[in-house]
Amino acid sequence: MSNFDYLYTVSNRRVSQIDLSYKRPIYFQINWDNRLIGIKGPKGVGKSTLILQHIKESFSDLGKILYVSLDNLWFASNSLIDLVEYHYTHGGTHIFLDEIHKYKHWQDAVKNIYDDYPDLHVVYTGSSILKLKAGDGDLSRRVRSYEMTGLSFREYLIFEGKLEYQVLSLEDILNNHVTIAADIVSRVKILPAFESYLKEGFYPFYKEEGDGYLSRVQEVITQTIDMDIPAVEEVEYGTLQKLKKLMMILSVQLPFIPKMNELYQELETNREQGLKLLSLLEDAKLISMLKTPVKALKHLSAPDKLYLDNPNMMYALSEKADIGTVRETFFNNQLSVNNKVSLPAKGDFKVDDRYLFEVGGRKKSFEQIKDEPDSFLAVDSVETGNGNRIPLWLFGFLS
């Protein structure tokens, strides 16, 4: 067996074992004919599954393709360029590089592969934190980039085999929510499904994990801090410990309206370093920073409100997640995919610099935003709404 045969054996095994029964929507949005494709996303959202599904469905001759994960120990003493040379000279036409951020100087390596093998197709996946740096190794003009997130509530219902429904625009929901919600609830018991999704439905691996799901979510958070962040940013061990401490602070105090000086003191750091830590966590899709529209224009500015990225994290990190915060976290998470979300002077969320939202339970009133134009309530624990009262779950159909 040559030095490379092991990788081909692993590649073929991974492809043969992949399930094609459900494909994420992004699968159909990717132009797989592009010669260089980059797919970013947080750990656990299904990037590896996505590319393995494409391989299994699209290639009858597995000798022409190679799937490798760059966190494989093989790369501790072997070169990616040597592997590409071997694959290309032995008839390879496509190579799929998973977890590319685990490979040192990955951007220079991918740039060289793209330039030196002009008819080789390359697909790579990496952490949400990846940023294409400008300069000699600039990939931005070469690569077609895509971003993956966790399951929306709409996707979760498809994944569960409960309901197939099209993606809705925000305008669809605001203008036609009564008719749309009535149609959906006639087909599925929506409220129990929504409760399940909030607790354990964001990451596609929930099906395989069962009772161990929330522990796996904890692992995702820990591995992102311990492994992904150091692979992309130069950070000291003490900084990583501060990031974990910050996650625990946020899990019990959300929605966290930070007193920044107290937060910096708690983390034993200064303002500049503290803001960088928050920015790192947001880039890694572990937290979301809500700012006023004015602050949002500044790169490193203090957030006015902090949320964990998604409700499942709250249940994973806290013994008793606050339901009010769970609702707001869900709304922020689902709206942030395709819309601009900021913190208004009144209400909970401003969307696309126009629409004002308050989020709450079935008894929520318009009292706080009654005189504001384009104002709406996103109400939990109701199947259908009326007027400007919209079921909270319906905002999970935006992606």
Describe the fold and architecture.
It contains 16 helices and twelve strands. With 399 residues, it is an alpha/beta fold. Strands 2-3-4-1-5 form a five-stranded parallel β-sheet, with helices on both faces. A five-stranded mixed β-sheet has the order 8-9-10-11-12. The protein has a two-stranded antiparallel ribbon with strand order 6-7. The model has no long low-confidence stretch (mean pLDDT 91). The protein has helices at residues 5-16, 26-29, 47-58, 80-89, 106-116, 153-159, 170-185, 190-200, 206-209, 213-232, 237-253, 260-266, 271-283, 293-296, 311-317, 323-335, and strands at 36-40, 65-69, 94-98, 121-126, 144-147, 287-290, 305-308, 341-342, 349-351, 355-360, 375-379, 389-391. Strand 9 (349-351) and strand 10 (355-360) form a beta hairpin. The protein is globular and about 70 Å long. It is 42% helix and 13% strand.
Task: Write out key terms for the chains shown.
399 residues; alpha/beta; 42% helix
Strand order of the largest sheet: 2-3-4-1-5
Biggest beta-sheet profile: 5 strands, parallel
- How does the helix and strand content classify structurally? alpha/beta
Indicate the percent of residues in helices.
Answer: 40-55%
Note the total helix count. Answer: 16
Nearest-integer average pLDDT: 91
Note the gap between the termini.
46 Å
Number of strands: 12
Rg, please?
Answer: 22 Å
Q: Can you write the helix and strand succession as a string?
A: HHEHEHEHEEHHHHHHHHEHEHHEEEEE
Give the low-pLDDT segments: none
Query: Strand content of the residues, in percent?
Result: 5-15%
